[in-house]
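Morning - dinuclear copper ion inputs below, output right after.
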Amino acid sequence: MFNNLPLWPSQASSLSGNVDLLYIFLILVTGLFTILVFAVVIFFAWKYRQAPDRHATQIEGSNALEATWTLIPFGIFMIMFVWGAAVYMRGVQPPPNAMEVYVVGKQWMWKLEHPEGVREINTLHVPVGKDVRLTMISQDVIHSFYVPAFRMKQDVLPGRYTTMWFHATKTGHYHLFCAEYCGTLHSGMIGEVVVMEPNEYQAWLSGNVNTGTLAMSGEKTFAELGCSSCHRSDTQGRGPDLAGLYGKPVALDNGTTVLADDNYLRDSILNPGSKIVSGFKPIMPTYNGIVNEEQLLSLVSYIKSLSQPQQGQPAAAPASVPVHTGRTQAPSAGNTKVK
Ligand code: CUA
């Protein structure tokens, strides 16, 4: 729609069109009323200009007039509110079964990690036509993950996971910006999102050096830190069994219940004393300063995989897909169509 208008980034996600329509509506409404107000001011200034034989007359209130200028703007604002809320809600609720990518922001780069274990810096490869959910965290200050072509922007915070999702609709290379001033090289904290055909994406995945899935490296860390000596499935475990935990409500010893989501798992590793599971003692030491954000993500991914028997398998390319042998970046540069 706006491919030839350089002021408008290309529309490359399922949300782009919705956001643009709303934006155009806002510009039209505000533009029309600006013109209307200026026209009326100029017209009245001329019509009621000072004249020797004219005297001011007092005007009494008019209920009809007041109702009109209250209800019409109210109606227009309600349209903006409901429309905007609908687009927003769609943008913040990732569909179930979206493919997951983990993002760690730091001064001044983006580190991206696919569940299959492939890591990237400042470049994110994704397949076209798939829902992709990003779970993001910062290891220092607040950053913001911004892909204009997808019309998506989300703050990336230290100490808490935030998520965003998109469904890319067009292959190509798209700008990735940090949209939160984060220090000296903020303006250099840029990269790109490469949207590829699904089979090219699979080839790219399998063409990368891969040390095992994220969940597998989480499992390794889990064993190395000795977590498995307490978190066991038998009754001897001194900590809660973690299998099947993810996504379920957890009863705490203070009588409340929390949902075992990504943030809860992360919190429980760093501040084990803050939320004690009912029936257990606060004996777990903190791992704050011992595990970094990437290890935390892999631990969270591992604990998640304990609830999803299908996950944790490397999503290797089917045998029929030709595997590019040029290792790291082979399919991305030459073969991806840029529109
Ligand atoms: Cu990171 Cu600005």
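Note: The radius of gyration is 27 Å.

O.
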